Amino acid sequence: MGNDVVVPAGPAGRRHRLLILAVLCTSILIVSMDVTIINVALPALVTDLRASITELQWTVDAYTVVLACFLMLAGATADRVGRRRVFQTGLVLFGVGSLLCSLAPTVGWLIGARVVQALGGAMLNPVAMSIITNVFTDVRERARAIGVWGAMVGISLGVGPVLGGLLVDTVGWRAIFWVNIPVVLAAWILTARLVPESRAARPRRADPVGQLLVVALLGSTVAAVIEGPRLGWSSAGVLGLAALAVVALVSLVVWERRHPEPLVELRFFRSAPFASATVIAVCAFAAFGSLLFLSALYLQDVRGLGALQAGLTLLPAAVATTVVAPLSGRMVAARGARLPLVLGGSAMVLVALTFSQLSPTTPLWLILLAHGLFGCGFALLNPPITNTAVNGMPPERAGVAAAVASTSRQAGQSFGVAVSGTVVATAASTAAGVATAWAVVTPLTVAVVVLGVLGTTARARASAARVAALFPAAPSPARAS
């Protein structure tokens, strides 16, 4: 159904495009929300499924690691076989995964179902952005559409914990997955009716070896950090995972340098803006993942708040993110990326230092204020990360560069949860572990400030220009049919 969908011209066409945007944003909202909504349910999983800290880490990271591993593959596949087709497949997988999560009898089953969810989610995020680019051909209209798209991050940060807390307190943790199913069904039907099919005129060649190496690298690194406290840092299992990560990294570098159309274009990293944006994304989202994971544990386990109350404490961060994100975009356009990167990183440094002093008696007003400040910093960073990553890149390579930045975000969030959870698992108490974990996160926030300066110098911009010259112009992408 819908193979002959055509976006009409004139006012009717504008309404049609806005409906497409609404469907895409709703779909991505539930994908982003499932990153945040699960955190307030963690204490309930301990009670209901007798989950350990390690299993809680896997419940969160099974989702974000799989997203990180398959975002680029999903985007390339959609360019080849059809963006609408891949998007609808992602919706089906996400819906099935959500249903399986709600029925999980054990933590192990829940973790496996989260993997299915994430496989679907990986097909939605990059593909939706490709559809937006393809449908909104006017530059100004496209910029507004991308701005609305970006606001979904702030909305998911606010809606996820509050909705999750309400459902956990009133219905139970399984309900946080039920809410996805009707949204997925409606989105699938509307996508078939509204979204035109499109493909790239010259899709990138598949790189299955590179994909397997990325999975091995990210998966083994996160697994080694999470399983270290349980198995022992000197155990054969953990040392084997560490060795696998090293071998995968070396092999990935060697393989991708020889592949004509690699999954990860290593020459991009010769661009100082691109390399700095990638590391900034990892550091900033490691702090973001730590905030969600550690706040849920601290507020519910240490302070004795309910799931809804814990979710409400994140509202200042959500409101700040939603309000400041558009301002950051304008700041990037007017002043460049350095100012928002430095301001955003500095705000996160202050929050990390504050939370490194957390105790069971820290005033709640201070926690609320810190959450709001973190939201401001986080919102300031997101637009310049993407802008800096694609700065100076030829237009036909900008999508690939942005995909690497998106992958870095998910990888950073996975590492943040892995490291923070490991610190808590080895601490004498949850309160002490949370404070120590924030002390570990603090240097990452400092790195954001330093790289925000180094990646935006004249010398850095010159390196981006040299990298752009390495890539010949490609044909224009095919439009929707």
TrEMBL record:
Entry-linked Pfam families: MFS_1
SUPFAM superfamilies xref list: MFS general substrate transporter
Protein name: EmrB/QacA subfamily drug resistance transporter
Compartments (UniProt record): Cell membrane
Keyword check for Transmembrane: yes
Species in which this protein is naturally found: Pseudonocardia alni (Amycolata alni)
Membrane topology category: Multi-pass membrane protein
Major facilitator superfamily (MFS) profile domain span: 20-464
Keywords: Cell membrane, Membrane, Transmembrane, Transmembrane helix, Transport
Alphabetical list of InterPro entries matching this protein: EmrB-like (IPR004638), MFS (IPR011701), MFS_dom (IPR020846), MFS_trans_sf (IPR036259), Sugar_transporter_CS (IPR005829)
GO cellular component: plasma membrane
Family from the record: Belongs to the major facilitator superfamily. EmrB family.
Record field: transmembrane: 18-42, 62-78, 90-112, 148-169, 175-196, 208-226, 232-254, 274-299, 305-327, 339-358, 364-381
